[in-house]
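Hi all, long-time lurker, first post. I run a small reading group and we've been trying to get comfortable going from sequence to structure in the token notation. Rather than ask abstract questions, I figured I'd post a concrete chain and ask someone more experienced to write out its structure so we can walk through it together at our next meeting. Sequence below, copied exactly:
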Amino acid sequence: MMSRSSPVRSNVRLSRHVIHSAIIAAPPYAYQTRLSDRLDISSGRNLTLQCIHRVITHFLVCSSRTVYGQTQLSLCFTYSIMRTVVLALGLVLCIHGASAVKNLRRFPQQKPLINDDWRDERYKTYFYETRVDKFGYTRQDKFSMRYLVNDLWWEGNNGPIFFYCGNEGDITGFANNTGVMYELGKELNALIVFAEHRYYGESRIDDNSNFDYLSAEYALADYAEFLEWLKSGDSQWSGTVDSPVIAFGGSYGGMLAAWIRQKYPWIIHGAWAASAPVAWFENLTDCNAYDLKVTADYAAAAEQCPVNIRKSWDVIDEYGQTEEGLQQLTEIFNLCSTLQSSNELSGKLQDAWGTSAMVNYPYPTSFVEPLPAWPVSVICSNLNGTDYSDEQLLVQIAAAANVFYNYDGSHSCFNITEGYVGLDDDIWFYQACTEMVMPMCSDSKTSMFPPSTWNEKEYAAYCRSTFRTIGSSTRPKWAVDQFGARDILASSNIIFSNGELDPWQAGGVSDALGNPTLHMFYIKDAAHHLDLRASHKLDPESVTEARAAEMQIVKNWVKDYQKRVIFGN
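-- Answer (accepted) --
Happy to help. Here is the structure in token form:
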């Protein structure tokens, strides 16, 4: 969930994540999501502290960096007048780098469960010791990979193992939002397992002091080794030796589910890859597709809604030119602290609009924030007027933003520096800067967002200045070389599902290339991996029908495998 971020008004969207989504997740990957508000990757410090930190740690790089645009320059200047040339140049780089945040994390992030009693009824927590370096021979030490198990219905006898491929975040969030595994697991007496992605949540390596062993390949190898152990007869769960393993995942987790089936078919016997943008790399997907889909979702809710959102960016920018205007924005949006730059606010709004489209579910959820049913429609109910004055438009935008950030009324003010629970942005940033390079851009003529272009060289420069261990360049083609994107003709037993409302759907797979063992679902009225969530009485009929068909495919996989085990063919 692949999890949203944004460099707001910059004319170049460097990349800090991707996905994130994740997004997918998210966001996953991206999310990617619009997170310009998360300019401090690791600790949520405000913009000024982040810039000062960058100046100190990257002085030599910053002092020679070219300014990429006046919008980036103004982001720091509106915060305070710089007194030295060196500090000014350093801060400009920081702002420019912050613009990379837009692409880096777009997948929605599930919130970890807070109610421990309910959690214990669903799963128990364990740790598996596994080697840090699975592809080398010099480092022999291990780390503890967290995994969650539900064995309430497990009877042994080589029943199925349902395995969730952990995304870019705390695994408990995914365990709490993938209800279809429990529904199907109860029916088929499955052993249900959720594995946490290395470096995320509690599965840290070297206390996450570096990301030298962070990649999708390492995560897949972790999962494959773990499953071999789980089926070896040495674990506490007996009767697994001849169990079929079905992988599940949504957003970035959906990508991993598809890829683990492709790379380890003797371990994984089928995969349900929901909202998996496996082809959001290189030029395989229009970099403007995400923003176009968000815009279309908002237009479907109310025709004037995206028109008013598009107008709002210039109004916010204009107010942000003076201290008086910043104070007015602070009051209109009920911010917890005085706004220092209009870009901070714009980034937070872009985040809200994009994420709401991803989690545009037909019933209330707390997937990323407490939200009403069909949140895009509720947001747009505040923005369907015409001929608003500038101040009236801002008031309506504030009301719309409140739907995303404070729908339940639990906050007395809008904390613009606060992020999502369980969001591991800095870790995902690294993945987005290495192999999960997912291009994002925005054409303001066709989308409701500010214009931005994709520039791979500038993206790579930002990544190098942020993560010194990356080296000379990112690897934007590696994911395609390694996993094949939509070139899946030789694959089998994979469900690729995409929702009509999901901004990530353009990067998914929709053509089975004539392969009858690959199953494509384009689900009307569905947002980001809605089909993986538990059945709900308010689900659209299209979602109910698709989920039932997908579940039947999984049942057939399990049945066919068990027949082969029994009869040897």
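A couple of things your group might point at:
The longest helix spans residues 541-567.
The mean pLDDT is 82.
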